[in-house]
Structures are given as C-alpha cells and as structure tokens.
Amino acid sequence: MLQRTFSIIKPDAVKNGDAGAILAEIVKAGFKIVSIKRISISRPQAEGFYHVHAARPFFGELCEFMSSGPIFPMVLEKENAIADLRKLMGATDPAAAEKGTIRQRFATSIGENAIHGSDGEETAAFEIGYFFAGVELM
Ligand code: ATP
Ligand code: MG
Fold first, then answer.
1. How many domains are there within the chain?
2. pTM of whole model > 0.70?
3. Domain region containing 109
4. Of 51, 55, 103, 126, which shows the fewest CB atoms inside 10 Å?
5. Confidence class of residue 1 from pLDDT cuts 50, 70 and 90?
6. Cβ(117) to ligand 1 under 6 A?
C-alpha cells in the first residue's frame, strides 16, 4: 500500500550545501516527492512541531537549531514510506548510523543530524498538516 511520510532536510545540511545530494538519495531509493518547499521557521514554530519532545533536556537546543536557517520540509510517497525513510536516514546519532545512510554521510552530531523523518502514521499525519495545506498535496 502506498504510504506518505514527512521529512525535513535540516538547517545543517542546507547550510553545508548537501540538500541536493540528500534529495538525490531519496529519489534513488524510490520515493516520489509529493510536495517540497524551502522556508525558515521561527523558534515558536519549531517548538510546535517538536512539542512531543518538550520535556526532553535537549528541547531548547533542538528548537534553536531548527529555527537557525532555511530548511526543506517535504512530503514523500512510496510503499512502506515511513519505515523505509527511517532506514535510509540511519540512527539519530551519526556515530551509530549504518554505513551509507544519510546521517552517516551528512550529519555532524546527534543534534545536528541532517534530516528528520516521521516515526509513525499518526505523527506523519500531524507533521504533514503542520507544514502543508491540502492544495499543496494533490
Ligand atoms: P527526528 O525526529 O528528527 O527524525 P529521531 O526520530 O531519530 O529524529 P528523536 O528522538 O525523535 O530522534 O529526536 C528528535 C531530534 O532531537 C533528533 O533528530 C535530534 O536532532 C535531536 N536530539 C535527539 N537526541 C538528542 C540529544 N541527546 N542531544 C541533542 N539533540 C538531540
Ligand atoms: Mg523523531
């Protein structure tokens, strides 16, 4: 069954000029790009997106980072999209990420780790709606 997931190329990767290479990896892995844009978000907008992590010790740092520069939010579609994107991304900490994964190749630290991917169907639905309107998803 075709499934949609939500992803963000994070500020570190955009700043380092890696957005194009990461997108190429995503397309090569069989994902269709349903929608994509380049935007900067405010600190409160980052806090709303990551609200599930509000109690974590790294929440402030995370929201500061995510609002520090342009990002590419996007909606991706393929069979098994949610799990397959997580596999392609690799572990949260690039030092633990499998060889060839996006985070192993492009991330610099556990905080500045190049890419976000939804971790389940419910989060994907919330995250897609947070960044994209219905007319951008046809
Ligand atoms: P994401 O949700 O961005 O796809 P993830 O699901 O692999 O990443 P989460 O546990 O959901 O990891 O953490 C969300 C984000 O918070 C991480 O991607 C990372 O940017 C940041 N983060 C997680 N753990 C730490 C930490 N120990 N120190 C600093 N930042 C962290
Ligand atoms: Mg997560």
1. 1
2. yes
3. 2-137
4. 55
5. confident
6. yes
